[in-house]
Structures are given as structure tokens and as C-alpha cells.
Amino acid sequence: MSQPITYATAGVDVEAGDKAVELMKESVRRAQRPEVLGGLGGFAGLFDASAIARLAHPVLATSTDGVGTKVAVAQAMDRHDTIGFDLVGMVVDDIVCCGAEPLYMTDYIATGKVVPERVAAIVSGIAAACEQAGVALIGGETAEHPGLLEPDEYDVAGAATGVVERADLLTPERVQVGDVVLGLGSSGLHSNGYSLVRRVFAAAGWELDRDVPELGRTLGEELLEPTRVYSADLLRLIRTDGIDLHALSHVTGGGLAANLARVLPQGVLAKVDRSTWTPAPIFGLVQELGRVPQSDLERTLNMGVGFCAVLPADQVDLAIEVCQSASIPTWVLGEVSDLAAGDPAYGEIVSGAKGVDAGACQMVGTHPKI
Fold this sequence. Notes:
single chain; 370 residues; alpha+beta; 15 strands; 32% helix; PurM-like_N_sf
């Protein structure tokens, strides 16, 4: 062997990693809370928990997730400053489903080659989304994995922790027959189902730079639309006087029916009426180009509904007002009834998703034509 082997010749550039940290510092600085102790670069992120100790019975909530194959779209378009919204939305919006306030988050970026500017762009999106959600970004890790990932490839993941007073936990037992289900509009595909979506458009020969009149922009721009981050607005809804929220469901992998059923008690059925909303054109394009069966589409994509809220009927108008004041399209999706009211003749009754033995959901009716 004529030349010594170093970490750099093995493909890991420590100096590039240090430069990436320097470039991301300003973004991370904006995504803070008063409880954060210390700065960027420590072995662990520190968060002052004294406020939590003042709760009567604090319960910690935690969640972890990634973005999935949507990162392939960001890489193909060489745009990396929005994917962070997808990551943060997938993590912190799960936490708020139990009524908890997300407090802090950490991220993990694995890449084949550390390009400081690209890493900084990814983190800038994560930080901006954390700032919007009121969540502190208190730490993270960037790992260079030559030989495992190509130089331009990366993946992102994150984890967050929140807290809720035990008496305020949103649990299925709160839901009652007669409650109303509200739909909160999504910003598009969000971050689920991209393996299906990418396969459909690749099979159709559609390139990301294709202008699509139905979308009013290129295909790539549509597919890269950031996930709406709901947590701060949902916490405002939870804390609004006159509203006794019974359940929240984040519509992610598995679709609307499966995720709504997870937050309902056994023996009840949420009947969701498709005629109450029109999905954005991207959903119709996926179905038409791929000849995707309706059932498969609804099990994979959010179909324009990013969240469901379940609450008493006499509080619906106020809840819609609160959500719409935050620029979230909100409408009545359906209602909760006894499970015996479900009729398989009108569509599949979905239950038992994600291994949860809970309630059930049935999608009925058809979407209005555009």
C-alpha cells in the first residue's frame, strides 16, 4: 500500500461537518424557547424542566419519524430548505394528538457526502418549522456515510418530546355518540404515499419540471409543497374557552379512515361524508394516471384532510372559527354514531389499524366534481 489511509480518503470530511454546523447556527438560534440551556455543540441538548414540575401530574409524550421518499424529490430538484417542514410536521403533530404541548426536538441527517450548504439548508427548514410550532430545536446530528449513501443522497429523521397534564389527556374515552368530526385541510400530499406517487408519475413519463395546468405549477413544485404544521394552532384550539375537544387525529400513513378510527373508543363509528369536500387536483391526477383503486388511494394519501377534530356538536361553529382564523380550511366531515349504525353496503368499515383495537370509521358518498 503506497499511500496511508485517512478518514478523509475513506470519504468522511470532518471539516465540512464543522462548517455545516457554523452555517446552521443562525437558523437554530431562532428555533428556541426560554427553557433551553446552553448552546449548539454540546453532547446533549438541555431543557429546563422546572415548569413541568409545577404541573399537578405531568405526562411526557414523545414521537419520532422521518420524511420518507419525499426526500428523493428534494434531491432531484436540488431544493432542500422545505423538507424540514415535512419532518417537523410528522413529529410534533403526532404529539399534539394526545393534547400535549411539544417542547423540544432533535434531528438526524445521514448523507453520503457532507455538503455544508445543503445540510444548512435542510436544517434551516427544520428550524423554521420548529419556530412556527413553538418548539425548541435543541440538538441534532449530521452523519457522513460514504459507501452506504451516494454523495447527493441523504435521509432525515427527528424526535420530539412534549408534556400534558394527565387530567387534560385526549383519550378515546372522551368521544361520545353524537359528536361531530371536523376536517382540517391539508396543504397537499404532505409526506405520505410518495412511493406510490413517484411510481405513478414515473410510469406515466412525467418529469418534475413538467408544467401541469391543473396544478398551476410544475409537478416538482407540487410534490415538494411543505407539510402544513398544525400543532401551535391546535393547542390554541384546545385552550379556547367554550371548547371541550374530545379527540384529534393526524392523517398520515394509512389514510383518513384508519387514523380517525385509532382515536375512537370501541363500539362507536365515525361516518365521514366525501361529499363535504373536494380533494385538490393532485389526488385526482395520481388516481387517473395510475388507475389507482379508490380504496388504495384512500389508504395511502390524506385526500386533502390533514387532521380530524372530534368535539360536541354545540361547539362546532366556534371551533371552525378558531381554525379558519389561523388560515386552516375547516368543515364538518361527519359525525360519531353507534357502531351498529354502520352498513357495509355503503362502504368498508375500517377498524383495527396500526394494531389498535379501538373504534371504526366508514367513508360514504362521493366527492364533488371539480
